[in-house]
């Protein structure tokens, strides 16, 4: 009975480890098969069969010289499964394989500690039998077998639970799954797993000892190890999880730092363009005034003499009236930004239609113009990039950008709509769509900048897709903020 239960538990353990493996790898790597469930099922069964095969041909013997060989074979099997069923992405695969192996080994040894503590029950049953508390030898044997099977089940259940929750925790904390790991960063997150794997290997080699030719466990010789070893293993498991969390926090901190640098550059650029636009505005107003006076004088002199000259001068006068910037909302920052971005995009997409008729600002605008510029600048950059990509794929497609706004009570709403090719890549557990630019560390943070700017005014940002139209919505509170020190207005 015990042998049958042990074999069934071994099968369960191997298959459950396979399930954890496919869950772990599938959360980071893209499967080669279209159906994720079939890909995961194949990975589960393949690992389970290979693991059982290793158990048959390379038995789990403590102190055996084949300990390293056994671990190496299992590690090779994991890499083989990754190569066959997943699109391997460089260094991340090494991290996944080593971390899974380390978590699996540590979980097993921690569970063994509970199994070892459960062995003290056998001494209790023997004492009860000796004292006559058990009616017969058969009763004693039944109780011993039940305890043995129960301990074995507890061993596998605890090991499986530790492995599963460790994998889940790592998957949850490892948020930047598309981040390209550098070698030093790989070493940082790999070291805790390698240390845990080496400690478990050391335990496999030294756990069996011999005193005067009589074999005994290391825990029997040094009872304090029953407490010390599990604590060390738990610390190693925590170091693996904490290392991943710290690594991800470092990425977020660096990204926020890059975001702040980009924001500072955007503000500086807006300041320069505002000054330039003010000079241009002044120059045009002066030129219009002088030219209109000159043209008026010439028209009076030419009146009744040369009709063609008069018609030409009238046309020139109308041209001067049209000598205005394309977009004028009354907000200097917004006007600067719209005209600058329009001239930039029309150089590559000349037939782009930009509609800002619905862009209106309230008389009392307490949102800083620079912040509106940051939001509009990032939104326009994303919209322009989407239109460029659309025209590159479909030259005859309609490219447009529509900007509108309105105020409802104290809330100010801004909406930017643009055409795009309809393909939006968004991974699980990711808040924003993926950028398709090669430098993902310094790009793709436009939406994050918009959201952080909106949150300054107790607002938020949202986006949705309607067919082949991307719609970005921003909501902010239009009210005085004491921390600003000054407010912008129209």
List the helices and strands and how they pair.
Elements: H1 2-26, E1 30-31, H2 36-57, H3 67-85, E2 86-87, H4 92-118, H5 120-130, H6 137-173, H7 183-206, E3 208-211, E4 214-217, H8 218-221, H9 225-302, H10 307-321, H11 332-346, E5 353-358, H12 369-393, E6 400-408, E7 411-419, H13 446-455, E8 460-466, E9 469-477
Parallel strand pairs: 5-6
Antiparallel strand pairs: 1-2, 3-4, 6-7, 7-9, 8-9
Helix pairs in contact: 1-2, 1-4, 1-6, 2-3, 3-4, 4-6, 4-7, 4-9, 5-6, 6-9, 7-9, 9-10, 9-11, 9-12, 11-12, 12-13
* pLDDT < 50 stretches: 210-214, 438-443, 485-490
Q: Tally of extended strands?
A: 9
Q: Please tell me the total number of domains.
A: 2
Helix count, per DSSP?
Answer: 13
Tell me the span between the first and last alpha carbons: 85 Å
The proportion of residues in beta strands is 5-15%
Q: What overall geometry do the principal axes of the alpha carbons give?
A: elongated
Q: Describe the sheet with the most strands.
A: 5 strands, mixed
**Helix-strand pattern, N to C?**
HEHHEHHHHEEHHHHEHEEHEE
Radius of gyration: 35 Å
Report on the architecture of this protein.
- With 490 residues, the protein is of the alpha+beta class.
- The chain folds into 2 domains: 2-260, no CATH class; 327-490, Heat Shock Protein 90 (2-Layer Sandwich).
- 64% of the residues lie in helices and 11% in strands.
- It has 13 helices and 9 strands.
- The chain has helices spanning 2-26, 36-57, 67-85, 92-118, 120-130, 137-173, 183-206, 218-221, 225-302, 307-321, 332-346, 369-393, 446-455, and strands at residues 30-31, 86-87, 208-211, 214-217, 353-358, 400-408, 411-419, 460-466, 469-477.
- It has a 5-stranded mixed beta sheet with strand order 5-6-7-9-8.
- Helix 1 packs antiparallel against helix 4 (92-118).
- The longest helix has 78 residues, at 225-302.
- The radius of gyration is 35 Å and the shape is elongated.
- The chain starts with a helix and ends in a 13-residue tail after the last strand.
- The model is unreliable at 210-214, 438-443 and 485-490 (pLDDT under 50).
């Amino acid at each position: 009975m015990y042998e049958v239960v042990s074999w069934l538990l071994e099968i369960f353990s191997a298959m459950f480890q396979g399930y954890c493996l496919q869950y772990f790898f599938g959360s980071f790597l893209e499967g080669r098969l279209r159906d994720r469930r079939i890909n995961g099922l194949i990975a589960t069964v393949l690992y389970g069969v290979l693991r059982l095969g290793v158990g048959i041909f390379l038995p789990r013997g403590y102190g055996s010289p084949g300990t390293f060989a056994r671990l190496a074979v299992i590690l090779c099997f994991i890499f083989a499964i990754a190569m066959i069923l997943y699109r391997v992405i460089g260094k991340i695969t090494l991290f996944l394989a080593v971390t899974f192996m380390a978590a699996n080994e540590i979980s097993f040894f921690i569970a063994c500690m509970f199994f070892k503590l459960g062995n003290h029950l056998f001494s209790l049953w023997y004492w009860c039998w000796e004292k006559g508390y058990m009616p017969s030898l058969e009763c004693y044997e039944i109780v011993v077998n039940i305890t043995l099977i129960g301990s074995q089940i507890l061993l596998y259940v605890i090991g499986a639970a530790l492995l599963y929750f460790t994998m889940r925790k790592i998957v949850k904390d490892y948020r930047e799954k598309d981040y390209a790991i550098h070698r030093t960063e790989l070493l940082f997150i790999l070291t805790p797993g390698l240390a845990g794997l080496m400690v478990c290997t050391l335990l496999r080699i030294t756990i069996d000892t011999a005193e005067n030719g009589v074999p005994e466990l290391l825990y029997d010789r040094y009872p304090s190890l029953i407490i010390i070893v599990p604590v060390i293993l738990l610390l190693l498991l925590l170091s693996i999880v904490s290392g991943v969390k710290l690594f991800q926090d470092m990425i977020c901190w660096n990204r926020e730092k890059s975001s702040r640098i980009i924001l500072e550059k955007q503000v500086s650029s807006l300041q320069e363009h505002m000054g330039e636009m003010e000079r241009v505005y002044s120059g045009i107003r002066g030129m219009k005034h002088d030219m209109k006076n000159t043209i008026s004088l010439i028209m009076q002199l030419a009146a009744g003499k040369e009709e063609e000259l008069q018609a030409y001068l009238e046309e020139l006068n109308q041209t001067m009236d049209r000598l205005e910037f394309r977009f004028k909302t009354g907000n200097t920052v917004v006007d600067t930004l719209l005209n600058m971005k329009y001239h930039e995009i029309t150089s590559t997409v000349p037939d782009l239609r930009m509609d800002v008729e619905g862009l209106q600002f309230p008389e009392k605008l307490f949102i800083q113009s620079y912040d509106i510029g940051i939001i509009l600048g990032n939104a326009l950059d994303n919209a322009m990039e989407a239109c460029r990509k659309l025209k590159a794929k479909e030259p005859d497609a309609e490219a447009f950008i529509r900007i509108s706004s309105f105020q409802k009570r104290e809330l100010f709403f801004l909406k930017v709509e643009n055409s795009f090719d309809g393909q939006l890549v968004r991974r699980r557990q990711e808040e924003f769509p993926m950028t398709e630019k090669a430098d993902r560390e310094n790009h793709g943070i436009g939406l994050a900048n918009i959201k952080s700017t909106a949150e300054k005014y107790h607002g938020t940002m949202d986006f949705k897709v309607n067919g082949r139209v991307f719609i970005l919505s921003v909501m902010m509170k239009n009210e005085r903020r004491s921390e600003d020190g000054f407010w912008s207005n129209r």
